[in-house]
Amino acid sequence: MKTSALKPAINYFANLVVISILSITSNAANAIAFTYFDLGRPGFYSDARAINNAGQIVGNGIAKVVLWNGTTATGIGDFPGGIQSFTAGVFSGVKAINERGQVVGNGSFDLCCPVSAIVWNGPTGTFLSGYGKPNSAADINDSGEILINGSSGVLIVGDRGFVGSLALEMGAGINNSGKVAGTHNSHAFYGDFDALIDLGTLGGRTSSALALNDMQQVVGYSAISGSGDTHAFLWSSDLMVDLGTLPGFNHSLGSAINNRGEVVGWSSVDNSSPYDSSPLHTDRATLWDGTTIFDLNSFLGNDIVNDGWVLERAHAINDLGMIVGAAYNNQLGLTHGFLLAPDLSIPDAAPAEIPVPTPPTYTLLLAGLFGLLYARNRETKVNSSLIRR
Asked: Which domain holds residue 384?
């Protein structure tokens, strides 16, 4: 009896949520504007992996700076000193950049040799030795603390050397408080040397944390119950929320989150995993702003689309809402790094201050649901009491 009595409240709330989200989507889509920049060189592969709040962009084959007039991006320039790319031996791969302009990644002097973590202070890379090989740097915070995945475990190395190790199988990100997001025993984790929290899953068996911000929020992807699909998640205030996918896609992944709580990543279909290193060119770069899912391709002009460009993967977003990632050209068969720079002269596109961590909109919706259920249950009890009288 109780279950059937609650169904109207559940159905009513579900319809209300859908209507609200559709309304928000319609309004938000008209309020946000982006300018697209192709960061690649003609005829060469590149992708953009990271961007800091100064607008410095790094990636594979990319070292650029956003030229900014205070509200809109006016162009792209090279790093000071004419840096075109970061070098370290024969092979190098860039992962992250901090606000000091320090860059981390990995490289080798020979493709046959073990890969090692590298920190770049300028164009020349310095190998981080003494931490076992192979190893690679996953992230760097503004204090210069570097998160390293190596044969000896997950380590944090600072300007003065070894800081400590963490009981994780894979580290993904480190924030300015020294908190780390990573994966252990096929579950996403968050924490530090003193305590690591198992973030759980979205109902499936596995989850992976890929990034975090300074507001105690973590993003990644998780298997969902009842299928082999994986969805992007946002963990905040001890709650893991399913961010969903673009319509028609069965996988999604959250690769980065800024301090405004905006998440970027991609939605995919037909891939065995959204984290496949070789996409089938069915991925679509995705933005979650807390209430709405956006296909970032919807912000491209017709001329860019007609030239064959598709934004496949969004790798990073800074606190101004600048998004970088990889775009594929289906006419040239090339991948180039891209930048989407928001027009901050539009009020709704301007960054909003977040003084304290706040529950995501989804948390508030759940709170509303429980409120409705409580009210419905209370009303049922009152009616039953009147009948007995």
From this structure: 1-31+370-389
User: What's the whole-number mean pLDDT along residues 159-174?
Assistant: 93
Amino acid, single-letter form, for residue 85:
S
Q: How far apart are CA 233 and CA 207, in angstroms?
A: 9
Structure tokens at 270: 């037909």
Q: What is the DSSP letter of 83?
A: B
pTM of the shown model: 0.82
Instruction: Give per-residue pLDDT as tens, 309-337.
Output: 999 999 999 999 999 999 999 999 999 99
Separation of alpha carbons 145 and 99, rounded Å: 12
Decide if pLDDT at 23 tops 60. no
Q: Is residue 18 part of a domain?
A: yes
Phi then psi dihedrals of residue 376, to 5 deg = -65, -45
Total of domains in the chain: 1
**DSSP assignment string, 184-253:** ETTEEEEE-SS-EEEEE-BEEEEEEEEEE-TTS-EEEEEEETTSS-EEEEEEETTEEEEEE--TT-SEEE
**Which one, of 145, 186, 143, lies nearest residue 168 by Cα?**
186
Across the beta sheet with 135-140, the strand order is 135-140, 146-150, 153-158, 161-166
The amino acid at residue 41 is R
- C-alpha span between 215 and 236 (Å, rounded): 9
Cβ–Cβ < 8 Å for 157, 140: no
Tokens 């003609």 correspond to 42
pLDDT in tens, 139-150: 999 999 999 998
Task: Confirm whether 389 is domain-assigned.
Answer: yes
